[in-house]
Amino acid sequence: MKRIFLLLLSASAVSATVSCSGGGSSAGKPGTKGELIPKERSRSFVAQRPYGMVSIPSGSFVVGLADQDMTNQPEKAQLRTVTVSSFFMDEAETTNAEYRVFINYVRDSIARSLLAEAAGEGGDGSGRGESIGDYAYQAYQEDEEMTPYQEWQESQGGRDESGYDANKKLDWSIPLHWSTAKYPDVEYAEVLESMYLPASQRVGNQRVIDASKLRYSYVWEDHNTAIAENARGANFLKRESLAIYPDTTVWVRDFHYSYNEPLFEQYFWHNSYKDYPIVGVTWDQARAYCDFRSKLKTDYNESLKRKKQRPMKFRLPTEQEWEYAARGGLENAPFPWGGPYLMDDRACYLANFKPKRGSYIEDEKLGTYTYTAPVKKFRKNGYGLFDMSGNVSEWTVSDFNNSSYGFSNTLNPTTKGTADTRKSVRGGSWKDIGAMLMVGARDWERKDSARSYIGFRTVQDIPESAVKPKRRTN
């Protein structure tokens, strides 16, 4: 009996010791009273609208051609109701000027990397780009002590799992000199000139960047394979490196026995076309642009001293997201502006398309647009989106299938991940007849094809908690 009493007394002492100790208690931190309280603040999150985008509210709609199908194509799908979550969408098609930002970023990244490799450990430069030594990698300063993480990374070879090397960080504050008159030294000139076409391949002795060297590399995760195998990890990471310069020859290749050489030579790079939609890009190039736009915002957020959340990624819209946005909140309307006519009450056409046989001009008196038109020249729809019909057709992320409306889900439906090289293209273009401008009309193109009449616009998801609920009116 004594032995049992002593054991109970010892257990009570141990219990008292544990409950009175500050660090060993599992009952919660001081002030929580043992309750499960998250660290995050309870402030509501408000989604910031990206520049040039409009918010598309979530909703349900009848997908498909509710009006007469004058094309009688097999792409027509059965009518059914689907639901789409809210998202941001570019108010206009991606322009030449916007895509040139992407091109210039890749060009400058490659130039800086080549200069940094040639500069080695650098030298006693001024830091203003007056010698090639100024372009060396931003190595750690001698008087700057490494963090434990940096020391560990150095012991592992200097690169993390994504291939990033902290010791090979480019210094973007040093200006690049593209004019030959401003080359600081011979070594700099040798590196920069390696990016241009050799003299034997130039036309009219014009110094032109070798477009084949403008390659964008990025990593994305194959979600469909990872979900199918119920696993996550590096095995499902896909690394891509692709040429991102648009194919300007599409203006000649798409139309035989037609004089389109001026567009082939000028459309993408001439400043007069800066507000025209980008064309000649493949589906993969459009996706690479989306990744670049996501990276641009992520890098900015990480540069801020205060903690900033990682932004939602930019991407191509699904086929149903595109159709839902194109309708602009109208039900059973054949066109983004309603319909059923292609002209307004002043006999002005409401989109850029081919209005008559052999005639590609909407207003022959004004002599408007024979090919593409600058974005935002025609009336926007109820959501504030321009050119959802006409001007250029637009890539979507969805794989194309004649029967996809039948087997896809009714909640945020998509056919992404079916390994089909055919991708859904929506909206009709400047070369199409009015029937192809109907919001329910479907079309497709191979993902590796570039056309003079296909462009794209991007979307960004909005977290459901960031959407203000609609006020009910009883």
**CATH architecture annotation name of the domain at 60-95 and 257-282 and 317-467:** Alpha-Beta Complex
Name the helicity range: 10-25%
Mind describing the biggest β-sheet?
Answer: 4 strands, antiparallel
The averaged pLDDT comes out at 82
CATH class of the domain at 60-95 and 257-282 and 317-467: Alpha Beta
Strand order of the biggest β-sheet:
1-4-12-7
- The succession of helices and strands, N to C, reads HEEEEHHHEHEHHHEHEHEEEE
> How far do the termini sit from each other?
75 Å
Outline the low-pLDDT stretches.
4-25
Quote the beta fraction: 5-15%
Domain Sulfatase-modifying factor enzyme-like: 52-459
Protein name: Gliding motility lipoprotein GldK
Keywords: Lipoprotein, Signal
Signal peptide: 1-21
Short summary:
The protein has 474 residues and is of the alpha+beta class. The chain has ten helices and twelve strands. It has helices spanning 2-20, 96-119, 148-155, 186-193, 223-228, 250-253, 261-266, 283-303, 319-327, 404-407; strands spanning 53-56, 59-63, 80-84, 87-90, 215-221, 237-243, 314-315, 393-399, 422-426, 443-446, 454-455, 459-461.
Give a structural overview.
With 474 residues, the protein is α+β, with helices and mostly antiparallel strands. The protein has a domain at 60-95 and 257-282 and 317-467: Alpha-Beta Complex (paralog of FGE (formylglycine-generating enzyme)), CATH 3.90.1580.10. Helix content is 23%, strand content 12%. It has ten helices and twelve strands. It has a four-stranded antiparallel β-sheet. The protein has a four-stranded mixed β-sheet with strand order 10-9-8-11. Helix 2 (96-119) packs across helix 4 (186-193). The termini are far apart.
